[in-house]
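hey m, so remember when u said the C-alpha cells were messed up on ur end? i reran from scratch. heres the input so u can diff it against urs
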Amino acid sequence: MALIDKINDFAKTATEKTNNAIEITKLSAKIDSEQRTLNDIVRKIGEYYVAKIDSGEVLDEEVMAIYEGIIASRNSIAEMRAEIEALKAPKTNSAVSDEQKFCPFCGKPLDVSAKFCLHCGKQQP
C-alpha cells in the first residue's frame, strides 16, 4: 500500500505542478496583453503632446528638452532621406546650396531663413 500511496502523491504533485504551469502561462499572456495596452496608451499620450508642441504650444522645460531630441531625430531622418533622394537622382553639376535646411516634419529641403515649410506648411522650429 505504501507504494501506491507514493505513486498517488507523485501523480497529485505532478498534476498540481502542471496546472500551475498552465496558470502561469495564462497569466503571463494576460500581463503581456496589458503591457501592450499600456504601451499603446503611453504612445498616444506622447503623440498628443508632440502634436501640441508641433502646433506651437510651449510646455514645461523638461518636456521641451525631451522634444529637442525629437527635433534632432526628425532632422537626422530628413537628412538621411535627402541623401537617399540624392543617391536616387541622376547626376548633375549643380551643388546643394549651403543656404538650405530640411523640414523636420516632411524632410523636404528649405531655405535656412524659412519660417514655414513650403511643402507641408508646418512652422519651423
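this time it looks ok to me. The two ends are 84 Å apart (CA to CA). if urs says something different then somethings off w ur setup not the seq
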